[in-house]
Amino acid sequence: MKNARLIPFALGLAGLVLPACGPEKPRQTQVAEEIIVKIQPVTSQSITVPVVVSGTVASKKEAKLSFKTGGVLARLLTEEGQLVRKGQLLASLNLTEISAQTSQAQQNREKAGRDLERAKRLYADSAATYEQLQNATTGFEVANSGFRIARFNLEYSNIYAPANGRILKRFAEEGEIVKSGDPMFTFAASGDAQWIVRVGVADRDMVRLQTGDRAQVTLDAYPATEFAATVTEIAQTADPRNGTFEVELGLHPASKRLVSGLVAKIRLMPAAAPATPVVPIEALVEADGENGYVYVLNADHRSVRKLPVKVGLLYRNSVAIRSGLKPTDTVITDGVSYLTADARVKVVK
Q1: φ and ψ at residue 238, rounded to 5 degrees
Q2: Which residues contact 213 (CB under 8 A, 6 or more apart)?
Q3: pTM of the prediction?
Q4: Where are the domains of the chain?
Q5: pLDDT grade, residue 10 (50/70/90)?
Q6: Which sign, positive or negative, has the C-alpha torsion 95, 97, 98, 100?
Q7: Burial 134-159 (b: 16+ CB within 10 A, else e)
Q8: Nearest partner of 203 among 161, 237, 248, 162, judged by Cα
């Protein structure tokens, strides 16, 4: 009887439990949203960025003429722009002091010569020692050297034209006190002039240049003409005044009349650099100096991976990548701002 009472109660519990054990409804799974992107394969190119500088035209045969010694400038016998002949006297110092020094040196030399002759005679008569003869010989040689120095300074207290040519610039006036080596004139030899352009470039540009590189030159005097030029010399030390390296270009005049001092604008074209991976600038994200990132499309064409790269040169709309990419990679160009490392993508053309 006890069991008979329990049966209805058990059935009631079963009725309560059975609905809970019915078929489970399927759960809804969240599908990742696909991001629309465009892609471009990595290309291998040699990017050459021109170096844009300015400079002035000069003659290859230009020279700065100066005095060997300092003094008072007594005479200037030529003007700027004047044609001169080889050996023509152009300027001279007041020779009062220099001539007196030369005369004194000559007298010292003559006295030392007499002392040497006397020492030789005394030594031959055994009235002087060999040491005294040596001292007299040395005294004469010293005096003779002093005379030669004085005569040399006297000779270069005048400036003569080293060749037929033209005086381009004069730097002093009569009566001024000038120092040894101060330029008095800029002189250009005549004949078939070889025209050059000298420019100063920064160290980061200098290391990209080499002799033989081409350049394009435009002059304010001939704005419609483009002149060809070639790098002929590159300085190996920086100018201490401004920290730039001087580069000399051989300029082809293209049948135009050139003169020293013309202002030139130059586009230097460095030799082709080694081929490196290149991507559109739109593919680069989170760039900071030489560091940046790009998104690369995986083989399934649905997922991407974020790669760190080292950035090289930036030129126009392209970026050279020094490291971090392979030539077989494909980068995302459009839609990169919406991407994350686990993003799903849909590629469109």
Answers
A1: -80, 150
A2: 230, 231, 268, 269, 270, 271
A3: 0.52
A4: 35-47+274-347, 52-61+194-269, 96-156
A5: very low
A6: positive
A7: eebeebbeebbebbeebeebbebbbb
A8: 237
Beta bridge partners of 267: 52, 216
Annotation: CATH topology of 35-47+274-347 = 2.40.420
Position 191 scores a pLDDT of: 61
pLDDT one-digit tens code per residue, 297-348? 998 988 998 989 988 777 778 888 888 888 889 998 998 888 888 888 888 8
CATH number of 96-156: 1.10.287.470
pLDDT in tens, 122-145: 989 888 899 999 999 999 999 999
3-state secondary structure 255-303: CCCCCCCCEEEEEEECCCCCCEEEEEHHHCEEEECCEEEEEEECCCCCE
Q: What own/partner pairs with CB < 8 Å and gap ≥ 24 does 305-309 have? A: 305/341, 306/339, 306/340, 306/341, 309/284
Rounded distance between C-alpha atoms, residue 130 and residue 115, angstroms: 14
d(CA 331, CA 285): 11
pLDDT digits 0-9 by tens, 173-228: 999 999 988 999 989 887 656 888 999 999 888 888 989 999 999 998 898 899 99
Q: Report residue 85 as tokens.
A: 């002949």
Which CATH superfamily hosts domain 52-61+194-269?
A: Efflux pump adaptor protein, beta barrel domain (2.40.30.170)
